[in-house]
Amino acid sequence: MRKIEEQYKLLEELLVLAQYRKNAGETEWLEFKTNIGESRCSITYDGVGNYISGLSNSACLKYKSHGYLVLGVEDATWKVVGTNLQMPTAKYGNQDYELWLRRNCLPMVPFEIEEFDYEGKHIVIFEIHAAVGEPVNFKGAAYVRVGSNLTKLKDFPDFVRRIYNSQKDWSAEIIEDATMEDLDPKAIEKARELYGKKHENDELSKEMMLWDDVTFLNKAKITLRGKITNTAILLLGRSESEYLISPAVARIRWIYKDSTGNERDFAIETCPFVLAAEAVHKKIRNFKYRYMNPTLLSLVPDELDTYDPFIIREALNNAIAHQDYGLHGMINVVEEEDRLIFSNVGNFIPNSIRSVLENNAPEEQYRNKMLANAMVELGLVDTIGSGIRRMFNKQRDRLFPMPDYDFSDDRVKVTIVGKVMDLDYAMLLTRDKTLNLLDIEMLSRLQMNRQLSDNEIAYLRKRKLVEGRKNALFFAKSVARATGQKAEYTRKKGFDDDYYKDLIIKSLEQHVSMSRPDINNLLLTKLPEALTDNQKITKIGHLLTALRKANKIEVGEKKEWRLKKFSQN
């Protein structure tokens, strides 16, 4: 059992993770419940066993080492409310409840129980090991989480197959019928070049000159004892050898869209990926970007490539390394007027971008371990944590938005914007040296109109970086002053209510009476830009109500507003 401070940290990390995932609730391997019992409780005694099965199987499918069932937290609000379950003495009938749970799980999946009080509320966390090699059943039935629903695993044969294959690294599987003749000589030559550059500071670069191709491929972790693997075909296979990894797909599709969103050009590259990635890179229109705002010219070069070449290579090679080839999808690179969008099928194996930015260390698990290792040997990717962090830092240095990750629809999509989108944001990066990557990532989502969780908003408010309502946030007044954007701040923030009330009174003095549309026309362009049109109409209604209740205006017979003859001051 963990120490109490470690238990607190685990609970807090799970709460942050649940809210961070697009504020959409739990992941498939994480569930929150409150009290346990047979009536008016959020989970039954049998239900705990069902969730142990479901979370274990889901953790396997999502390449997580553990699933978590947390009792004592509301599953909709993530509010810590406590639970009635007391594990040391809990019984099911006349049986010890923990022992009963373990006996009814087959195979006997290990799980640990963390039990403690958090801010006066009792918490029980089941930390459940992921299924390995076969599904975990509870009382003869296997379960799985699909979205936020717990359901029978038997209804998803592809999931069953993936769990049974979970001990295998697809990228390391040997293709018995394949030979060295199925590899592209130019791709092998390119791989030697990359390997030599990667190891130019050690003896391997010199030794490689003496190796034949079989030795080189073994040393570079592309083949196994001279046997051709799926990794070898993906990276070095001839284009006509793609069928050897069927039904997996070795395709990278590049699409160019104009400013109206219409597709103007496309290309599809197949293996060998060491050459295909380079071909796609060359197709990207990486024009020069010029900083037009004079306040930025002294802070960055006045001209540079729209996209840093490292970011293009890292994003594309990450998609290759971490694609779920069992889902038979293509890797896509979509080029738009001011951004690049890279996507690959399969979930994002680290917990979140937050965990990558916080933990400056390699990820412990990989979907395609052999493929990832081979690409590291060739210098095509950094370890997953450091490469993504470098992408964020390079965008920061340019004052551009952070890489924007979207994990919906069982795919990873990362958008790289190639321009300054918001001058407030860009100047903030240059003025405030206390901001870390997590701060900047949240502020970047704000400028791109992406959703922030309540905890993130509260954090940014505490740092006095943002103002406004939850659905109409903007950079704070202190930021506007620092960046010289005072007029922009006023347009977004608006004036005090007394200013708008005074406008209404003075207009009624001039015109005697005004209809509601007249008053709307008077104020709509003067209200804060951060409000939507509907919010502005609602605010005008509140202003009129406040003046009426103050006995200053009234509605006449023609439903027109006018000053009250005997207004009270």
Query: What is the structural class?
Result: alpha+beta
Instruction: Please describe the biggest sheet, giving its number of strands, its sense, and whether it closes into a barrel.
Output: 6 strands, mixed
Number of strands: 23
Distance between the termini: 68 Å
Mean pLDDT: 87
User: What's the gyration radius in Å?
Assistant: 29 Å
| General form | globular
Which band does the percent of strand residues land in?
15-25%
Question: If you had to describe this structure to a student in words, what would you say it looks like?
Answer:
The chain has 569 residues and is an alpha+beta fold. Helices cover 39% and strands 18% of the residues. It contains 22 helices and 23 strands. The strands form seven sheets. A six-stranded mixed β-sheet has the order 12-11-15-16-18-17. The longest helix is centred in the first third of the chain and has 17 residues, at 4-20. The chain is globular and about 100 Å long. The termini are far apart.
In short:
The chain has 569 residues and is of the alpha+beta class.
List the helices and strands and how they pair.
Layout: H1 4-20, E1 30-33, H2 45-61, E2 66-71, E3 91-92, E4 95-96, H3 97-103, E5 105-106, E6 111-118, E7 121-129, E8 137-138, E9 141-146, E10 149-152, H4 157-164, H5 185-198, H6 204-207, H7 213-219, H8 230-236, E11 251-257, E12 263-270, H9 273-283, E13 288-290, H10 294-297, E14 303-305, H11 309-322, E15 331-335, E16 339-345, H12 353-358, H13 369-377, H14 384-398, E17 404-406, E18 411-417, H15 423-431, H16 437-447, H17 454-462, E19 466-467, E20 474-475, H18 477-483, H19 486-493, H20 497-511, E21 513-514, H21 516-523, H22 533-549, E22 553-555, E23 561-563
Parallel strand pairs: 1-2, 11-15
Antiparallel strand pairs: 2-7, 3-4, 5-8, 6-7, 8-9, 9-10, 11-12, 13-14, 15-16, 16-18, 17-18, 19-20, 21-23, 22-23
Helix pairs in contact: 9-11, 11-14, 15-18
